[in-house]
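Tutorial handout. Part one gives the primary structure; part two gives the three-dimensional structure as tokens.
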Amino acid sequence: MLSALDLPGNASSVHAEGRAARAVVARAREQVAALCGTSSAHVVFASSATEAACHILTPSFRMGRAPVRVSRLLVSAVEHPCMLAGGRFPAEAVTQVGVDRDGRIDLDALEAAIAAHDPASGQLMLALQHANNETGTVQPVAEAAAKVRAAGGIVVVDAVQAAGRLPVSLEALGADFLILSAHKLGGPKGAGALVASGEILMPEPLVRGGGQERGHRAGTENVAAIAGFGAAAEAARDALSVASAISARRDAMEARMRAIAPDVIVHGAGAPRLPNTSYFTLPGLKAETAQIGFDMEGIAVSSGSACSSGKVGASHVLKAMGADAALGAIRVSLGRQTTDADIEAFLKAFATLNSRRLSRLAGENAA
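Part two.
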């Protein structure tokens, strides 16, 4: 990124300075494409994953030069808010599909929603997370995608949380499009991407103007952020080998949490999860209170998803799972740099909070 900041040229310019900037963008495009197992020609850079979601969630597509209409958007009830908002679809064209108690999409309910769709009105689209941004629950994307594609539909996968933690492949997932975010990979904030499986079927542009990104997204490219995105994508590919070690550390941490507080509820524990994520509730302790307590001990956790931790209201993810959402939940994220000392510090803070919780509950019961 520092090297890219020294490049004065506009990546769209044909002079030497412009060509140097364009080479940086091209290299990053290759790195992001390699993370998803596709061609660099299929990567469209954006300012964020949210922008990429608004780009792809549209009723208006083109198959070459021919217009294609999408009349129905299906989303799981635990999707990120930018997906639940439906992008450019009208609210009446969006259908939420329920999930089980671990937060995985109900495939029978999905089949029913597909069967209820009238193909004469337009095509069908499914937008589904690879992994949830609160619980870390991994969705049965390939199975869901196969059902939608059999009905001639389009499959969009939000791979923001999964990329860099799980192998991500458009082909293996059965996806037509993926959405990625740079900062979730360890890259800079303010860069995202829409990754397609081909070049024929594409959505109408969200940002119109110049011909940047081959006409799919107008605006001068943020060369430094894109360079950081590419470098992070390459590093993420190399780091997949440590995922099992991170998962083992997370599982050991949760086992000790249960020993400290046997009534702790670990949400999504009955399903495959991201290796780095633990999402739990201590009965009788509000998540916001726990978050403050952990912060005072130097432990950074979030109550819900990181991008909406300041929101007011119960988690829609917990509600959809049928869990008691009133108390909320705490999300703990481990990483490559997490050490045994970090885990011990967290467990010490967890034990302190649990002791305070039990003392308060005992006092309330006595009263």
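Part three, for discussion. The CA atoms of residues 4 and 291 lie 38 Å apart. The first helix runs from residue 2 to 5.
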